[in-house]
Amino acid sequence: MLKPVNADVYLHYRCANCDFIHIITIAETRFPAKILCYCGEKLFIEPIKQVTVTPVYGTKKDKVYIEEEKTTTNEHIQPKTTINKPAINSVLFDDSVSALISLGVKKMVAREQVGKLLKTKQCVSVEEVIREICK
Fold first, then answer.
1. Which of 34, 114, 115, 125 could serve as 38's disulfide partner, Cβ 3.0–4.6 Å?
2. Domain span at residue 35?
3. Per-residue pLDDT, 127
């Protein structure tokens, strides 16, 4: 049986000001250790040195589970927040920014436009976001 050699899990940080979820790697927490949100808020991140993940393997036959400890630099962490605003869909945000970039829009301009639009209007598809921005 083949077992995984590594796992890629990303950290999710929610902006307290606009409720946008920023997805970063553990390596990204070490360098500037802060995120500049699209709303202008500065999010200060505590550096993470290492994370330990323990996969649980099982078989359907005998339902015996074997735990094996693996160390990796990735883990899912979601901080608590007290704001009850709806979060901006980060997948829709990223896909919309990529679509605008492929149309020739500069990355920072695309991020600003998509961020502003998704804060004010509820869009469900990349096509709808592009249509609204191009109006």
1. 115
2. 1-83
3. 92
